[in-house]
Amino acid sequence: MDFAGLDLNLFVALDALFAEMSVSRAGERLHLSQSATSGALARLRKVFHDPLLVPVGRKMTLTPLAKGLVEPVRDFLLQAEAIRNHNPAFEPAASRRKFRMVMSDYVETVVMTEVLPRIEKLAPGVTMELISNVEGGSEELDRGEIDLAITPAKYLAAGHPSERLFEDEFTCLVWSGNKQVGSSISLKTYLRLGHVVVRFGRRQQLPTFDEWFVERFGRERRIEVITTAFNLVPQLLIGTSRIATLHRGLAMFYARYLPLKLVAPPVEIPRLEEHMQWHRSRNQDPGTVWLRSILKDALGGSAGRSKADKAAHGSGSPRRASTGSAAPRGPRVTHKAPKPASGA
Q1: Euclidean distance between the first and final Cα of the chain, in Å?
Q2: Chain CA centroid to CA 341, Å
Q3: What's the Rg (C-alpha) of the chain?
Q4: In 10 A of CB 65, how many CB atoms?
Q5: Tens digit of pLDDT per residue, the chain (344 long)?
Q6: 203: Cβ–Cβ under 8 A, 6 or more apart, which residues?
């Protein structure tokens, strides 16, 4: 092949420029000086006979030609990476690979506390980077910058394969000293109490449950506390008369350590489905395939209940939590064959 003297490393710079739309930020990503990055851009402009990035006000924007190059350039680099890392098998015990995963803090707590001990035993040299996706976007997945995302079905990105990992139910959670809530709760009391809720990102987006509740009942709950992490919700209930509606797996996890009480919701709430999703270029990557199998095996070994659920009910474990007689069951683990994503 004749690339007319084109240095293919320039595509790495082009990809960074497309991602950042800033010479200085692209340079930081590439660990190059601003002058070196500007030089790379100048060479790319000569190759494509196009300015590629042009100033609009105080910002840079892509030319029409550049917009058409974004996806092909990224796909080219991902394919090059796959060729470089091609290996017919993944050897966990000998691997020094770093896996990057995106998930909520809820999933980190109820899933990764089960998975990480297994990975340490099977692949002691592997590094795991867990990234919170508070903005709810799929940019890192689309760019192939992560190995795996675990996300609710509603937020799956189009164009990439996915597989359902587990289901969970919602439960109401209150401080065990809350005298306004007994072994059950009516809808009237539920609406009267102050609620602790989670909202994400700079725009404080409503999570799925809040959207569903407003659509179902035409009114918002009486929200008194807003936080940005699921893991903070149980702690913020202690010593108050407030209530939260939380994933049962996470509620049971914290009920092991805090004086909390689980109560069945006064209405039937749709179950939550969490899916694994990966970039299409990693569909046959042995390392990613291994990681997905570890996740499925870890949850499959729970026999339909989360680790937190088992620990809270296990013999010899202190039970500081009390549950209403009608409290819902723990996460039900179900597996399906990989299928194309249905879109966000």
Answers
A1: 40
A2: 15
A3: 24
A4: 12
A5: 445 556 777 888 888 888 888 888 888 888 888 888 888 889 889 888 899 988 888 888 999 998 898 888 888 887 777 666 666 678 999 999 999 999 999 999 999 999 999 999 999 999 999 998 766 567 788 888 889 999 988 888 888 899 999 999 999 999 999 999 999 999 999 999 999 998 876 555 556 666 677 777 777 788 899 888 999 999 999 999 999 999 999 999 999 999 999 999 998 888 989 999 998 888 888 899 999 999 999 988 443 344 434 433 333 333 344 444 333 334 443 333 333 333 33
A6: none
Q: Does domain 10-84 have CATH number 1.10.10.10?
A: yes
Give the closest residue to 282 by CA, choosing from 206, 336, 338.
Answer: 338
Q: Are 199 and 228 in contact (CB under 8 A)?
A: yes
Question: Of the candidates 152, 166, 174, 104, which has an alpha carbon nearest to the alpha carbon of residue 307?
Answer: 166
Q: Kindly write down the DSSP assignment for every residue of 37-101, as one continuous string.
A: HHHHHHHHHHHHTS--EEEETTEEEE-HHHHHHHHHHHHHHHHHHHHHT--SS--TTT---EEEE
**Tell me, what DSSP letter sits at residue 183?**
S
Provide the whole-model pTM. 0.69
273 closest CA partner among 137, 197, 159, 165 = 165
Structure tokens at 69: 């190059």
> What 3-state DSSP class applies to 310?
helix
**Gap between the Cα atoms of 152 and 133, Å rounded:** 12
